[in-house]
Amino acid sequence: MQMSVTFEVTFCMRADTHPGETVCIIGDCDMLGNWNPHRAVKLTRVSSPRPSRKADSNEKSNTNGMNIWKRKIRLTNGMHDYKYRYFIARIVESDSEDCETTVDVSKWETNIRQRVFSPRAYMDEPAKYENTIDTFGEYGQNKYVTNGWLIDKTEIHIRLHSNPIYMWKARHRTQTYSIKCTPLDHRFRDTIDEDEEDDYQPHTMPPQTFTKVLVSVTRTIDPEYLGFQFDFYVQFPDKEPSMLVTVFVPME
């Protein structure tokens, strides 16, 4: 007769996270999501970095921006080892029952060997597991962290190169321009009048750079509604740049 064994294990992680990000754990069983990011278990932040007490406010805090995340998870697959990893993501819960939660993985542990929870080792020293705080990306005497990947989003690269823009007026062809690229959601465009649009899209100059290739990178869940606004500014040697024209480029 095979005996069923259940463990309630507290996983605790130290990670450098940004506002809106969550630390998640994912692994090789149903309780840990079976490596599916949509089914990963979210940890709860239990402490935040405290401000530095040093006189110079410009100096970095001793905590280096680290947060502590924790979650107690019930593991019911018996005595075999459980393999798992942590990742950091922005998670947006859906208001509709028909749509899945949106998961945007920003950082992922990439050590070739996964973390391992051993039930036998846990039974020998349960206090050791309960008092251990892991550090994101660090285990096996190495640190391996990389950027996440696209799960629910589409990444679009707008690349301008090899003289793709032609000015019809001869006097415009000899001038120097700066270009600002702004992604727009066309679903809301018709609901905004011109005065409101000016509030949402201020005519601010892009940083001045000199390059033969312009690349703009945008991520979106709904690429079919995406468009781009290009603002062209004329550069002058003796006065502030002036906006020349605005062009809208739809994705369809």
From TrEMBL:
<dbReference type="InterPro" id="IPR013784">
    <property type="entry name" value="Carb-bd-like_fold"/>
</dbReference>
<feature type="domain" description="CBM20">
    <location>
        <begin position="1"/>
        <end position="138"/>
    </location>
</feature>
<dbReference type="InterPro" id="IPR013783">
    <property type="entry name" value="Ig-like_fold"/>
</dbReference>
<dbReference type="InterPro" id="IPR002044">
    <property type="entry name" value="CBM20"/>
</dbReference>
<protein>
    <submittedName>
        <fullName>Glycerophosphocholine phosphodiesterase GPCPD1</fullName>
        <ecNumber>3.1.4.2</ecNumber>
    </submittedName>
</protein>
<dbReference type="Pfam" id="PF00686">
    <property type="entry name" value="CBM_20"/>
</dbReference>
<feature type="region of interest" description="Disordered">
    <location>
        <begin position="44"/>
        <end position="63"/>
    </location>
</feature>
<dbReference type="GO" id="GO:2001070">
    <property type="term" value="F:starch binding"/>
</dbReference>
<keyword id="KW-0378">Hydrolase</keyword>
<dbReference type="GO" id="GO:0047389">
    <property type="term" value="F:glycerophosphocholine phosphodiesterase activity"/>
</dbReference>
